[in-house]
Structures are given as C-alpha cells and as structure tokens.
Write a structure and sequence with these properties.
Helix content: 55-70%
Strand content: under 5%
Shape: elongated
Number of strands: 0
Radius of gyration: 24 Å
Largest sheet: none
Number of helices: 4
C-alpha cells in the first residue's frame, strides 16, 4: 500500500500545473454538480421523475457538446477533460438506470401517486340494518 501511495504522490508532483489545475477544476465541477442535483435525486412521483429526466437530458446534451470541443484543447488538458467526461457519462448512466427503476416501480403501483400523496384509506363497508 505504501508503494502505491508514494507512486501516486510522485506522479502527482511530476504532472504539469495545467493538468493539476484541470483535475482540480474537474473535481470541483463534479462536487458542484452532485450538490445541485442531490435534491432531485430520489424522486418517486410522476412529476419528480419528469423533472429528473429533463435534468438528465440537459446534462447529456452538455456532455455531448463538450466532447466536440475536447479535441481542440491542448494535450494535457484534453486528456483530463476526456477522463472527466467519461466519468460524468458513467455517472449519468447510473442515474438513468435509477430513473428507469423508479419509473418501473411507479407504473407497477409501488411508488407514490401523481400528487405525491398516498391513496385514501378504504372505508369500512356499511352495515346492513337487521329487522
């Protein structure tokens, strides 16, 4: 374990300042993205899932647009950007899988209703008057 840590530290010290800055910016961006998407991450209503899907589609569009720019970046930054976009794509894939499971549960009746409220409790059957 010590060899791995020393190798990682040595490799990090030998990287260019631009690559370290790009890595730091990527980690910061991932943190901000995770923090802002946290409130919408566990929707169980139809409207909440629709909002999650809109955010997911916007995020995939941003990643696709960013992938078109990456080849024009300088060498150390382009590899860091490509790695970052690969990680973001993987996280978006996991999020989409979570959304699909939640949609399936909602369609099968295991989620909450459209209004976010549980269905009303069943009323007891009226008793028949006896004569």
């Amino acid at each position: 374990m010590q060899k791995i840590v020393s190798f990682s530290a040595k490799t990090w010290r030998e990287t260019s300042p631009q690559l370290r800055a790009a890595t730091g910016a990527s980690i910061l961006f991932l943190g901000v993205l995770a923090f802002t998407s946290l409130p919408s991450g566990c929707a169980t209503t139809k409207s909440g899932l629709a909002q999650e899907q809109r955010i997911y589609q916007a995020a995939t569009n941003v990643v696709a647009d960013a992938r078109q720019v990456v080849p024009y970046l300088p060498a150390p930054v382009s590899s860091a950007a490509e790695t970052f976009l690969a990680i973001v794509s993987g996280l978006l894939t996991l999020w989409n899988a979570h959304q699909q499971i939640a949609i399936r549960k909602l369609k099968n009746g295991n989620g909450t209703s459209t209004a976010g409220l549980s269905p009303p409790a069943a009323q007891p059957a009226p008793t028949q008057p006896t004569s």
